[in-house]
Amino acid sequence: MSSNPFEATAILDGIRRWVEIESPTERPDQVNKLADLVASGYRDLPADVERVAGRDGCGDHLAARSSWGQDAPGILVLSHIDTVHPMGFIQRLPFKVEGDSAFGPGIYDMKGGAYLAYHAFRQICTDAARAPLGITQLYVSDEEIGSPTSRALIEAEGRKAKYVLVTEPARDGGRIVTGRKGVARFDVVIKGVPAHAGARPEDGRSAIHELGNVIQALAAMNDLKRGITVNVGVVKGGTKPNVIAEEAIAEVDLRVPSIAAAEELVPRILGLTSRTEGVSVTVTGELNRPPYEKSNAGAALFEHARGLAAEIGFDLVDVFTGGGSDGNFTAPHTATLDGLGVDGKGAHTHYEQLYVSSIEPRARLLYRLYQTLR
Question: What pairing do the DSSP bridges indicate for beta strands 229-237 and 247-256?
Fold first, then answer.
């Protein structure tokens, strides 16, 4: 029996149990099966588990609260237990360990990091002295689709907390995240006038032709130097090749580095109009994850974490990333540190993996953050 409470092999065995319960967002029954296992891990700990029933086709959310420190702002740990991988993907990507890599669906994004936070909490509970602050671990079921049913819960818990730690995976060799782009999504619906494409084309007004104009207008909004990206990711339209298209639709993704950029770009996209007489363009959508900008409080939290990492024996470097997370919801009002999960690669792919060597140092970092934040 190892005397090291952060021994990687033992922790990896716990991660494996979570990974082997597949939990696609669209399968609330499977997500809830994993939630059952997660909740059971707190039964022998000084913690209360609140289960928030799922809705709108999503699974339940769990809030595990330490029995101490709940009367004052404390530490909120954000994790998600849903994955993007469909049911049965584990046949293609079974849990296995090869050298320093452990493979499995969702192991990197983010069951590995979620389990590290849980394991670090278990260790805090064995200490003779209680951690200075109360700890709440929130596990949500819908992060991979934008957190539609958990956002209000995340924001409410975030406003109550003094610090937020997010167990999304590390970036680029173990880097921690101190900033993320905001994310907006839009639906474009174009209505034209149908006509026979051969006999009476002059009677028609092509929705697809106008969609081309819209796509060009959106493409012109890209500004990589400013970190602004606009992507038309889905297009559909028309019924037959010999019919002038009556309708066309597009789904659009916008990423912005700051609130100022969001306030500029969102109205521009919502305000798109038709260039073709007799054709209408309707755009709906909104900013669904605000930009996560590095605040003074967030910078101080990072510096604290960097000092702890140095004590443990590794260099902690921060990075700004284009992907969104639940940390976007808390960063505008609470000191937030993201990317505290495992290091690895291949999120959302058929080779998703964590690096076994990252397990112990990153579990120890979470433990020391619980132990020292005050």
Answer: antiparallel
Other beta carbons less than 10 A from residue 297's beta carbon: 15
Phi, psi of 252 (to 5 degrees): -125, 140
Query: Measured between alpha carbons, how far is 324 from 293 in angstroms, rounded to an integer?
Result: 12
Q: What is the pLDDT of residues 197-209, one digit of tens each?
A: 999 999 999 999 9
Angstrom CA distances, 176 to 48, 83, 131, 167, 305, stand at: 29, 21, 23, 10, 10
Q: Could you tell me whether strands 135-140 and 96-98 are parallel, antiparallel, or unpaired per DSSP bridges? A: unpaired
- Look at residues 164, 177, 65 and name the one whose alpha carbon lies nearest to residue 121: 65
DSSP assignment string, 22-44: --BTT-HHHHHHHHHHHHHTTTT
Q: How far apart (Å, rounded) are the C-alpha atoms in residues 99 and 216?
A: 48
How many residues does the structure list for the chain? Answer: 374
- At 128-167, the pLDDT tens digits run 889 999 999 999 999 999 999 999 999 999 999 999 999 9
Query: What is the phi-psi region of residue 84: left when phi exceeds 0, alpha when psi lies from -120 to 50, beta otherwise?
Result: alpha
d(CA 246, CA 204): 8
| Residue 224: other Cβ atoms inside 10 A | 7
Q: Please provide the DSSP assignment of 178-222 as one string.
A: EEE-EEEEEEEEEE-B--BTTT-GGG-B-HHHHHHHHHHHHHTT-
CB-based contacts of 310, cutoff 8 Å, min separation 6: 316
Tokens standing for residue 27: 């399968």
Its pTM stands at: 0.91
Taken in order 139, 142, 145, 148, the sign of the CA dihedral is negative
